[in-house]
Design brief:
Oligomer: single chain
Strand content: 5-15%
CATH class of the largest domain: Alpha Beta
CATH topology of the largest domain: Aspartate Aminotransferase, domain 2
Number of strands: 13
Largest sheet: 8 strands, mixed
Order of helices and strands: EHHHHEHEHEHEHEHEEHHHEHEHEEEH
CATH superfamily of the largest domain: Type I PLP-dependent aspartate aminotransferase-like (Major domain)
Number of domains: 2
Distance between the termini: 54 Å
Shape: globular
Structural class: alpha/beta
CATH architecture of the largest domain: 3-Layer(aba) Sandwich
């Protein structure tokens, strides 16, 4: 658990070499320095890995002082973490404008659960964007339903219908995701959050796609910004972790709920995530450039019916993307011009440079056949252009890594050539 430091670097604090740190540091500089308190790092660059379940005290009085529920960054017991976890949480708080604290979770799905359980109680109501990540939907229709929370799904592109539903349903929380999972619709998050706020509903956004570097969610009006750190922050496909950042008093609710659920992250994983965080911006910039080029190439291929990528000027969400986002990432999808649902499998099986696997945001490129129409309640799916009564088209999600885009395009050309093969 990490709060924003009282004297954050960049606001006149002493620099790591002893001099006064300049104010108004740019994003890349802040990312390189965030969370690196000298009392945690000592004489080394990175915060060491502190492993331990038991913390020892000099006296009983010290033990009692450390036991306070609201004490961040103090030794108490292993579940409260140690400098390895604290420095990562503080760094994430520093790069999320307007956040006052960040809670870490052992996975992205654990972060989803932690956010929802912190703000909802039996008898409450939740509105969830219909293009949300499938585990988020399953959480709403499964665990939350068993706990007595009613969920309705809404089309985030229809603001008038959403406003009417908020007035009628009177939710305690609204769950957002932009771009949408699998189909990449960009919605008007500031307006969706404003409508929720005026109805006294807490707005939570899964901001994994853009991260606060590309979309400062709290600054855009959301109350809680959640991420899967397994993706861009980790960046190397070797850790599972999630986070949620918020202002007070929501940060305190998130922290308390995580403690009550026994949520804790491994110091080894926290060290890996902190290492990945330092290079996240350059990795995102590289994968975004490649993704834009590859998406534009795919849009010109006869085997492709539609590319779902807000980086493209032709995408329906591009104007909102340009207005609200400062950056993107390498994740997008495309629909094949075929009625054969097995075609997507043939394409990915023929790829040599794309791995077939879940997750995304690593340095390696991945390809995954998807069926977004199976995860919809009220929205139309791009894989069913004729509606529920029409045919269904196969689709593929790509996570573009750090390979050369020319090599990836050549590989995709080989894969598309196999689309109609028996």
């Amino acid at each position: 658990m990490g709060r924003r430091p009282r004297h954050p670097q960049g606001a006149g604090a002493r620099g790591m070499s002893g001099g006064k740190e300049p104010e108004n540091l740019r994003e890349a500089t802040r990312l390189a320095r965030a969370g690196r308190r000298s009392e945690w790092t000592g004489k080394v660059v990175n915060t060491p890995v502190w492993r331990g379940s038991t913390h020892l005290y000099e006296s009983d009085a010290e033990r009692k002082r450390a036991g306070g529920r609201d004490h961040d960054g103090q030794f108490f017991y292993g579940r409260r973490g140690a400098p390895t976890q604290w420095s990562l949480a503080e760094a994430l708080t520093e790069i999320e404008p307007r956040a006052e604290g960040t809670v870490l979770y052992p996975s992205g799905v654990a972060a989803i659960a932690g956010c929802l359980l912190a703000v909802l109680s039996p008898g409450d109501r939740l509105l969830m964007s219909d293009n949300a990540y499938d585990p988020s939907r399953s959480m709403a229709t499964g665990l939350l339903a068993r706990l007595g929370v009613e969920t309705r799904f809404f089309d985030p592109l229809d603001l008038a219908a959403y406003a009417a539903l908020v007035a009628e349903f009177r939710p305690q929380a609204v769950w957002l995701e932009s771009p949408g999972s699998l189909t990449m619709e960009v919605c008007d998050v500031p307006e969706l959050a404003r409508i929720a706020r005026e109805a006294d509903a807490v707005s939570i956004i899964d901001n994994t796609w853009a991260s606060p570097l590309g979309f400062p969610a709290l600054e855009r009006g959301c109350d809680i910004a959640m991420m899967s750190l397994s993706k861009h922050v980790g960046g190397h496909s070797d850790l599972m972790m999630g986070s949620a950042s918020a202002r007070e008093p929501l940060y305190r609710k998130l922290r308390r709920t995580a403690q009550e659920l026994g949520q804790v992250v491994s110091p080894d994983d926290a060290a890996l995530a902190a290492r990945g965080l330092r290079t996240m911006q350059v990795r995102l910039e590289a994968s975004t450039r490649s993704a834009a080029r590859i998406a534009a190439w795919l849009a010109e291929q006869p085997q492709v019916a539609r590319v779902m990528c807000p980086l493209l000027e032709s995408d329906p969400g591009h104007a909102l993307y340009k207005r609200d986002f400062a950056g993107g990432c390498g994740l997008f999808s495309f629909v094949l011009d075929s009625d054969d649902m097995k075609a997507s499998g043939r394409v990915v099986d023929a790829l040599a440079l794309f791995g077939i696997g879940y997750s995304w945001g690593g340095y390696e490129s991945l390809a995954l056949p998807i069926a977004p129409h199976t995860h919809r309640t009220v929205m139309a799916s791009p894989t069913r252009p004729g509606g529920a009564g029409g045919g269904t088209r196969p689709a593929i999600r790509l996570s573009i890594g750090l390979e050369d885009s020319e090599d990836l395009i050549a590989d995709l050309a080989r894969g598309l050539a196999r689309m109609d093969a028996e």
